[in-house]
C-alpha cells in the first residue's frame, strides 16, 4: 500500500518528506557503485540524483498511483525513473553549452565538480537507466503496462516533450518578443510534459479508464504551468540562498517569461487561477485526492 509510507496522509510536508525518503532509498540501491573505472560516472550520477531537491515528480507519481490501489513497489519504480530523467535534464541544462550554471540544488553543478564530459555521461546514464527501471518486471506484472510507461515517458522526455521545449527555449533565449501563447507552449513541453507523465503514471499503472486519465492530464497541465509561473517569479523575486540556484537570469538575458509579459501581480493572479482550475479536475476523485489538492497549492507557494 502506498499510503503506508505516509504517517500523516493529510499533511503535505510530511508526505513529501516520506515519499522523498522512500524514492531516495530506491535510487541509492539502483545506483550502487561498481568496482571498475566506470565508477566515476556512477559517482557523478549519485552526486546529482542524491542532491536535495523537492522530489515533486516522484511525489506526483505516488499520489496519483494511490488513487488506483497500485502497489508501493510499482509506484516507487516509476517514481525513481522520473526523478532520474528530471535529474538528467538538470545536469545537461546546467552545462556551459546550455545554461552554464554553477549552482544547482544548493551545490556546485555536476560539471563543476567533475567535468563537462563526465556530466554529459552522468545525464546520459540517468536517462537510459530510467527506461531500464520502467522495463523491469518489478515495475508491473503486465508487460503491456510497462510498454505503455516506456512509450509515454519517451514521448514526454523526447523531442515532442521536454527536449523539444528546451530547443525552443534555447532559440528564444534572447528573444523578448515571444507572446503568451508561445511561452505557454514552450513551458508545456519543457516543464509540463514530465509533470504530465508523473500525474498520469498512476492511471497507467492502475489501468484506469481513458476519461480518468484525461482528468489527471488536465490537472497536470494546470499545475505544470502554475509551477513554471512560480519558477519565473522565484527567478524575479527569490534569492540564491532560498532557491539553491542562480536567480535573476531571465531579466539579465532579456528573456520573455510569464513575469515579463504579465507583470509580477498578473503572473501571481494567473498562477492562482490555474491552481483553482487544477482543483476542479480532481472533484470526482473525492477525499483520496487530498494530497494532490494540497500539492497544487504548494507549487505556487514554494520558495525553492
Ligand atoms: C537538457 C533536455 C534538457 C532539458 C532541460 C527542465 C529543463 C529542461 C531545464 C531545467 C531548467 C529550469 C530551471 C526549468 C524551470 C522549471 C524546472 C524544471 C525547475 C527545476 O525543477 P524543480 O524545481 O527542481 O522540481 P528540484 O531541484 O526541486 O528537483
Entry keywords:
single chain; 304 residues; 2 strands; mainly alpha; Farnesyl Diphosphate Synthase; binds geranylgeranyl diphosphate; 14 helices
Explain the overall architecture.
With 304 residues, the protein is mainly α. It has one domain: Farnesyl Diphosphate Synthase, CATH 1.10.600. It is built from 14 helices and two strands. The protein has helices spanning 12-30, 39-49, 56-65, 72-94, 110-113, 116-135, 143-157, 162-171, 180-205, 210-237, 240-243, 249-253, 258-280, 290-301; strands at 103-104, 107-108. A two-stranded antiparallel sheet has the order 1-2. The protein starts with 11 loop residues before the first helix and ends with a helix. The structure holds geranylgeranyl diphosphate. Geranylgeranyl diphosphate (GRG) binds at residues 53-54, 56, 86, 89-90, 92-93, 105, 162-163, 166, 190-191, 228, 231.
* Terminus-to-terminus distance: 30 Å
Poorly predicted ranges: none
Quickly give the CATH architecture: Orthogonal Bundle
Number of strands: 2
What is the highest CATH level, the class? Mainly Alpha
Question: What count of domains describes the coordinates?
Answer: 1
Précis, in short:
By secondary structure, the protein is mainly alpha-helical. Helices cover 69% and strands 1% of the residues.
